[in-house]
Amino acid sequence: MKRTLLFICFCLLTSNLASALTVEEAYKAIPHRYTPFEVESASMTSHESRFLVEFFGLVNLAIIERVQTLAWFQSRGKQGSPFSNYRKNVEKIIGQLGQLNVPKNCVSVRQRVMEAIQDQKAYFQEWDTAQAGRAPFKYPLGSLGARHALVTSSSQKLHQAYGELMQLFPKERAKNQQAFFDHLCALDFI
Domain containing 64: what range? Predict the structure, then answer.
């Protein structure tokens, strides 16, 4: 399982290794606390815990991509990673999420997160289109960006996914419940 996740990380980031962030660096850049999911202490089934390890690994890759691309947009291309890399890498991440062996009770969680990432990609596409046309983007992240329909929609889906995880695993250890929150909150723009 760890080899698979490392291979996924390698494949997704080889096109942009020079500027790739680590998971910890991405969380620090947001800034947000990072609590890893601990499969060893999980009280859920082994199928559920294996899924969540892989799922949160892919969520972390999406966070890295988002942080790097946001830096690129906010710095006007001087830092981070361009949207073209984000688009390509996020499509791979979404594909990997779609191929996970998902327990039936977690299908909706995965779907909501995939849709949230798609919303984020569409938001960045709008920003990229505005920049390419040399037009000001009305909704850069900050006070106005939080009002953009795609940012709001993505955030709502991530909140719903978190709520579902908490309903599915109410007796899970506090540290793993914190991991649920940290991963999905760090992926959220808001």
Answer: 2-187
Lowest-confidence pick of 6-10, 120-124, 131-135, 160-164: 6-10
- Cα separation, 187 vs 66, in Å, equals 8
Q: Which amino acid type is present at position 83?
A: F
**In the structure encoding, which two tokens stand for residue 75, read together?**
């710095």
Question: What's the pTM?
Answer: 0.86
State how many domains the chain has.
1
For residues 63-78, one letter each, b for 16 or more C-beta atoms within 10 angstroms of the residue's C-beta and e for the rest, the string is bbbbbbbbbbbeeeee
pLDDT classification of 5: cutoffs 50, 70, 90? very low
Lookup: tokens for 147: 């009002």
pLDDT for position 135: 74
List Cβ neighbours of 35 (8 Å cut-off, separation of 6 or more). Answer: 175, 178, 179, 181, 182
- 154: Cβ–Cβ under 8 A, 6 or more apart, which residues? 116, 117, 119, 120, 123, 188, 189
- Maximum CA extent, the chain: 53
Band the pLDDT of 142: cuts 50, 70, 90.
low
